[in-house]
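The data are quoted verbatim for reference:
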Amino acid sequence: KGLDCGGTDIRVSQTTWSKLRATCHSKPTSVDATRHPVPTLDGTLEAIAAASPNTWVFLELKTDQTAAQRKAFLAVPTEFGLRERTVVTSAELSRLRAIRDADSSVRRMLFVSGAPVPADQLKKEKLWGVAVEQEVATAGYIKQLQAAGLTVMVWVVNDASGGRRTVTDASFRAGHRHLDGDRWQRTGRVGVRPAVAGERIDTQEGTS
């Protein structure tokens, strides 16, 4: 839908949530004429906390933060009772190190893509976990990460026209234990979120 900020020049990374809410709304479209408020972090986490006592939250840092922004960012999960179910993620170690310096008890997860980062190096960073791109997530690498005490998740950017499987056989076997026949049991953590009403997910394995 895009944002309508009334002609005001807004840079989200340099704007407080309260100003963003007060200034901007979604643009009306031919199918939805309502000008919805901007879904900011505090409002989103408040809704998650009210909807589920079990849902984990993974917050990705895509920009550098000032000390003040970092303090405000870290305060929100605590405000809504989600601190123990929140993981801060980033593809940049420098941003995760800044989070560690601000509060070493915060769970942190690094996105690994392109090439594997040595497990012993990641262990020294005292990360909670790593999210590894499918092309990098060999069974051997996953076992090294798990042996280093890291929670491991595998991710992939799917190309609908390419018909790729969501998880390679090696990656699947590294995170599951065969029971019998076609039954498998997951041996690690899995990231989940509440479904949106009417949501449709198409994968190589089928539609849900």
